[in-house]
User: What shape does this take?
Amino acid sequence: MVRSILAGAAMFAILLGTATGQNAPGAEKEPSVTLRYLGTAGWEIGDGTVTILVDPYVSRINGPPPPSGGSGSTVADDTRPKVGWDNIAVSDVAAVDSRITQANFVLVTHTHYDHVLDVPQIALRKHATVIGTESTENVLRAYAVPEAQLITVRGGEDYDFGSFSVKVIPSLHSPLDHKHYFSSETAPANLKAPLTLKQMHPEGGTLAYLVRIGGHRILVFGGNNYIERELVGLQPDVALIGAAASRKEIYDYTGRLMRALGNPALVIPTHWDNFLLPYSASQQPAIDAVQQFVQEVKAASPKTTVIVPKYFEAITLSTSTK
Ligand SMILES: [Zn+2]
Assistant: This one.
């Protein structure tokens, strides 16, 4: 299925496909950017030349739930071992190798295990450059990822990489535990692998990223909060927005966001699935719950297209100035 919508004043069409390399008739020669949802807050963004991952987490361990509650995995035939905070954080390298085919860059929003656990192995196996906070980079240093592959940021940077660029946006963590979540912890220097899950989970501050690639401006969040003033003027045409229940702790979360961003042509919810479950488990309760977010976007920004992503299914954006 291919749908075409006008991106308003941006004067280009976004062509949406659900298969790799799918293009609209007449658009074959134009560069296309593909997004692929890895589950949790994980994304693959590629243009056929460069592959950029955001918060890639494919091990999906049977780990502890976030402090907002939740009972963890409730799959009856779950054979995965339970992993506690004091257990060693083990990346499933078979999953990394099968799920992640290529990675040139990895952008990490914050140092929580559901965002960073697989990043050292991805960096080592794919020789990817990792952009993240000092906390995130210290976790990577613990696994002896070469310094040349580490770009440490704090928010405010706007870096050019030739075929694409990345603006680092200061942001906020999801307001878990009914607004009581707070952490100023940072992973210290001189950690030595293997790390426990707890050592992989000091937030270290939270960032968002604006990726400019193939004529698109793709804004990616890793959670359910933002700093409104940091978003003014970004004008993304594609926004990957945290859509978990904790967003409801925020005043007019979706409305303020749509206005600050200038009503992006395409919104895709992220970090809305139950990441404590294996990929094979049903996500139906989460799929049902995210429909409310879809309605919030529709109410705030009627011309915006919203796509609830399926795991690993390509969403292809093609640019056209015609
Ligand atoms: Zn987190």
